[in-house]
TrEMBL record, chain A:
One Pfam family hit: GST_C_6
Domain Thioredoxin-like fold positions: 86-185
Domain Metaxin glutathione S-transferase: 237-303
CDD domains in alphabetical order: GST_C_Metaxin (cd03193)
Region (Disordered): 1-25
Protein name: Metaxin-1
InterPro entries, alphabetized: Metaxin_GST, Mito_Protein_Transport_Metaxin, Thioredoxin-like_fold
Coiled-coil ranges from the UniProt annotation: none
An annotated GO cellular component: SAM complex
Single GO BP term: mitochondrion organization
From TrEMBL, chain B:
Organism annotation: Lachnellula suecica
Chief place of localization: mitochondrion
Location in the cell: Mitochondrion outer membrane
Taxonomic path: Eukaryota, Fungi, Dikarya, Ascomycota, Pezizomycotina
Protein's UniProt name: SAM50-like protein
UniProt xrefs under Gene3D superfamilies: membrane protein fhac: a member of the omp85/tpsb transporter family (2.40.160.50)
Basic and acidic residues bias (residue ranges): 16-31
Any one of the GO CC terms: mitochondrial outer membrane
Keyword terms: Membrane, Transmembrane, Transmembrane beta strand
GO biological process, one term: protein insertion into mitochondrial outer membrane
Positions of transmembrane segments: none
Region: Disordered, residue numbers: 1-31
Length: 311, 498
């Protein structure tokens, strides 16, 4: 846009020239803006505005608390029970530990801005106009979100923290992916019921989703190794449980903290699901490896009772 | 002698400087004479036929003379020709009847879209042929088959959408006018689309068709912050009645995914994200008696669409009964000025999936959307109805109407498909709050609460043979809070305008 002020060094320019120049610039501006008579016409319409239309039945009721979108059954969501997906459960446990009040919404990866659950949708703020929807908060922004709400988030600053975290994120996760998706018995008994059948009643769609899930799990495992060695996966997970059991020792929470941290939440995400008999595991190798570590089993009980009402 | 040489000079002169006007004149005269002759011949033929119109004749044979390779099956042509042969009818024709029947056959042949041009001749069989009777006539049809494979690529620009496409058409596959069309396109809104359509006439009748189709597409829907990924297949049967109305009955199965949500998608759209399968039967009935489909000046259109999904043996994940009615009427006023009006309405009635159980509330894919340059001008696409944040989430019940006055352009011939228009249009789109039948009736009654959302304006209409273009200046007059009206200019391209 051309400057509408004459630079200082041209002050000596005769006034008529200046006015014609500014006239010109205003002409250029006016060409692109709405002419005044049209603008006044635009301001006069609409002549009549009624209240807004009501939303359809499936639209969620507005809530005063934030909504956490997770993999969960409808009835479990209402009761605040744990999600059946480890990453969702980790952050659900974290929010419970941090004391961030939220409601659970059963959902699927399609709903997420990143393509994976969980994510948090902040409560509809009364100060927001109804035209605006607050942006979702993806999982790795949840610590900041909790801190912003003034919740105390205990962070472990141990040097060993990252090494142990990677045990969970790699060894245990790989064994989990294998046991859930690639053990045929567990896939049909557990994964199919949780991740496939809720999506659609159509057998073709179910077959397609099953195939997608299994090949995604396989691709994920092949990222770290060239062949999938079952015994190796299980023995690595067993070693990881052993190391975590030694780390916990006789303490209530990991790293000797007085309250649980995100680390406790991330180990709970797996121990809760492996020890939950309601899921109906058929091939229990990984479950047995965990049950041998009594202090990890007690750790899960402790979290479940304290933050999930013992359900 | 002198005079002679003078005329010679004249001749040479005229050869040297030919009078172009004179030549033109002569050519014109020649043309006129030829025209007059053909006209006279036609006239004579007409007279001959009309004076002999009651002459009893029998059609003894119909022959198709093709040039080039012939792929059309004999049995397919038999189905077309056999019914009018006198031997199969058991009675003789009047000459006029016979010609009419033969003309109808030639017309059918044209409509299969497998021949370039079909022309008809009538002849008397050789009287020395012992098998012929004195009343026999022979019908000769001359036609050239069209190429069997047609490959086409191109670009399209439509309503805020640009796309590139490739199309392969395989005609007359089994010699019975069957066709297979494969289509692939990529665009700004229809991100990708792959479609295969197999179409075949039944019993050699161009008005009875069976169509099998398969579709995989991905469409960006910015008015509801999501992308719809669709995989589906269907079968349709269409036929025309004697009175000229058309029916189509079809089954469709489709797997829909609401995915790739925008960062600021509303909770309503987030709740509907994921998979759903629709298994439905649709019936469409159309009576189009307008003089021009894109810019009518006389006549009316009636169309109903009914769909039942999910109920009973259909299964799937969604269940509803959907009915839509569309009407349009045009009437000339004077001096090329015409008035057109349109009315559309629809309702989605929730049903239980399978046999019994609770009725299913509707999802965003199945609900109606209203607004945009091709239906309610002066509103953006999906601009009317319930909105959550910026998202137009659709409704279950709607009604929309429009009135347009079309005026010929000053200083432009009236037969040019260019008009000035004055219009007013409006409508309502409402969502059900529960699945009970009483709520459906209550919501329908609610359509009449207050004034409908309304917009009016002026514009220019151009009816190109393939689509109608409109550029309008419009202002919203009445609206609901949150509805997305458009003040000022709006451009629309489409084939079906309200």
């Amino acid at each position: 846009m051309p400057p509408n002020k004459i630079p200082d060094n041209k002050d000596e320019a005769p006034p008529p020239a200046q006015s014609s120049f500014s006239q010109q610039t205003s002409k250029v501006r006016n060409f692109f803006s709405i002419p005044a008579p049209v603008k006044t016409l635009f301001d006069k319409v609409p002549v009549l505005t009624y209240p807004s239309n009501e939303l359809p039945q499936r639209a969620p009721k507005p809530a005063r608390i934030p909504s956490l979108y997770v993999f969960i059954k409808e009835e479990d969501a209402a009761a605040g029970r744990p999600s059946y997906n480890p990453s969702c459960l980790k952050w659900q446990a974290f929010l419970n530990i941090a004391g961030v009040n939220h409601r659970l919404v059963p959902s699927s990866n399609h709903a997420s801005p990143t393509g994976v659950l969980p994510f948090l949708l902040p409560a509809a703020n009364s100060s927001n106009s109804p035209q605006e929807t607050s942006a979702p908060i993806i999982s790795n922004k949840l610590i900041k979100y909790a801190e912003k709400l003034g919740k105390t988030v205990v962070e472990t600053s141990s040097m060993r923290y990252e090494a142990y975290q990677s045990l969970i994120d790699h060894r245990i996760r790989s064994a989990w992916l294998y046991t859930l998706y690639l053990e045929p018995l567990n896939f049909s008994a557990v994964a199919y019921q949780l991740y496939v059948s809720p999506n659609s009643s159509n057998p073709l769609v179910r077959a397609s989703i099953s195939h997608q899930l299994r090949s995604a799990a396989e691709a994920e495992l092949l990222k770290h190794t060239s062949i999938i060695d079952t015994d190796d996966l299980y023995s690595e997970a067993d070693k990881a449980f052993e190391a975590l059991s030694i780390l916990l020792g006789g303490d209530s929470w990991f790293f000797g903290c007085s309250t649980p941290t995100l680390f406790d939440a991330s180990i709970f995400a797996y121990t809760q699901l492996l020890l939950d008999d309601e899921l109906g595991w058929k091939e229990k190798k990984l479950c047995r490896a965990l049950r041998r570590r009594a202090n990890l089993v007690q750790h899960r009980e402790r979290l479940l009772v304290k933050y999930f009402g013992g359900s | 002698m002198a005079s002679n040489s003078g005329s010679e000079d004249e001749l040479l002169e005229s050869l040297r400087n030919p009078h172009t006007e004179k030549l033109d004149q002569r050519a014109k005269e020649l043309r006129e004479r030829e025209e007059a002759q053909t006209q006279k011949a036609a006239q004579r033929l007409r007279e001959l036929i009309s004076s002999n119109s009651t002459l009893p004749v029998t059609i003894s044979s119909i022959r198709l003379i093709g040039s080039g390779p012939q792929h059309t099956r004999r049995s397919f042509l038999d189905g077309l020709f056999a019914p009018i042969l006198s031997a199969n009818r058991g009675s003789s024709y009047k000459l006029s009847e016979a010609l009419q029947e033969a003309g109808a056959v030639a017309d059918k042949l044209r409509r299969f879209d497998i021949y370039h041009d079909v022309s008809m001749f009538v002849d008397k069989p050789d009287p020395t042929d012992p098998s012929s009777t004195p009343t026999d006539i022979d019908i000769w049809l001359q036609a050239r088959e069209r190429g069997r494979i047609n490959l086409k690529t191109g670009t399209d620009i439509g309503n805020v959408e640009g796309s590139a496409y490739g199309n392969l058409l395989w005609r007359n596959i089994f010699g019975g006018a069957e066709s297979l069309s494969l289509n692939a396109s990529k665009g700004t809104r229809t991100r990708s689309s792959y479609q295969a359509v197999f179409d075949a006439p039944i019993l050699s009748d161009p008005d009875k068709r069976i169509t099998l189709d398969a579709l995989a597409s991905s469409t960006y829907k910015p008015w509801a912050s999501h992308e719809e990924v669709l995989k589906g297949a269907g079968v349709k049967y269409s036929w025309a009645t004697k009175s000229g109305t058309r029916h189509q009955v079809g089954y469709t199965g489709a797997w829909r995914q609401t995915t790739n949500l925008a960062a600021d998608a509303s909770p309503t759209v987030r709740n509907d994200a994921g998979d759903s399968v629709k298994s439905s039967i649709t019936h469409t009935w159309t009576a189009d008696r307008r003089d021009h489909p894109l810019l009518p000046s006389r006549g009316y259109l009636l169309k109903t669409v009914s769909e039942i999904a999910g109920w009973g043996p259909l299964r799937g994940d969604v269940a509803f009964w959907k009915s839509e009615v569309e009407t349009a009427a045009a009437m000339p006023i004077s001096n090329g000025v015409s008035f057109t009006t349109g009315l559309r309405a629809g309702v989605l009635y929730p049903l239980p999936v399978g046999f019994g159980g609770p009725a299913q509330p509707s999802r965003i894919h199945d609900r109606f959307q209203l607004g945009g340059p091709t239906d309610i001008r002066g509103f953006n696409i999906g601009g009317l109805g319930p909105r959550d944040g910026r998202d137009s989430v659709g409704g279950d019940v709607y009604a929309a109407a429009s009135a347009n006055l079309l005026i010929p352009f000053p200083r432009v011939a009236k037969d040019t498909p260019l008009r000035l228009q004055l219009f007013a249009n409006g409508g309502r789109l409402l969502a059900l709050k529960d699945t009970s039948s009483s709520d459906v009736y209550k919501t329908i009654a609610q359509l009449a609460d207050g004034l409908p959302s309304l917009a009016a304006g002026v514009g220019v209409v151009y009816a190109h043979p393939v689509a109608r273009f409109e550029l309008n200046f419009s202002l919203p007059l009445v609206m609901r809070r949150g509805e997305d009206a458009r003040k000022g200019l709006q451009f629309g391209v489409g084939i079906n305008f309200l």
